[in-house]
């Protein structure tokens, strides 16, 4: 299963710096949310599309959406940017809005393979909303540390 740790950082340099340490971003240094198997490209673009009422293609084309920031030849782990729109959308989403997208999220082909029920999808969305809200409040951006 793919390891995906979402975290906020003040700069791309700080974000890519997590590759210097084994195991991903250090929770004592970064605000980190571990979401195993929830990839930062396909699943996050689908989530952004739901939260912003845009198409998947529009969400995936936003600046910073799924952009590889680390060396593409590196083995082991990568750092990928998360669009500012996807940071802002869950940060400002109401509980009702998160509840409304939980079912469709659980139906994503990439997530349904894990048997993620809507109640757990809602928990994930609430955790992501918290991370995103803290990032907005601290003027930080979101990133994903991705490793096999």
Report the radius of gyration as a whole number of Å. 14 Å
Number of helices: 7
Rounded mean pLDDT is 91
Structural class: alpha+beta
- Strand segment count: 4
Strand content: 15-25%
The H-and-E topology, N to C, reads as: EHEHHEHHHHE
Low-confidence parts: none
Shape: globular
Widest sheet: strand ordering: 2-1-4-3
Q: Main sheet?
A: 4 strands, antiparallel
Helix amount: 40-55%
Report how far apart the termini are. 7 Å
Structure description:
45% of the residues lie in helices and 16% in strands. It has seven helices and four strands. The protein has a four-stranded antiparallel sheet with strand order 2-1-4-3. The longest helix is centred in the last third of the chain and has 20 residues.
Which properties best describe this structure?
alpha+beta, 148 residues, 16% strand, 7 helices, globular, four-stranded antiparallel sheet
Write the layout of secondary structure elements.
Elements: E1 3-9, H1 12-16, E2 31-34, H2 42-52, H3 56-60, E3 77-81, H4 84-92, H5 95-106, H6 109-112, H7 118-137, E4 141-147
Antiparallel strand pairs: 1-2, 1-4, 3-4
Question: Could you give a quick summary of the protein structure above?
Answer:
This protein has 148 residues and is of the alpha+beta class. The protein has helices at residues 12-16, 42-52, 56-60, 84-92, 95-106, 109-112, 118-137, and strands at residues 3-9, 31-34, 77-81, 141-147.
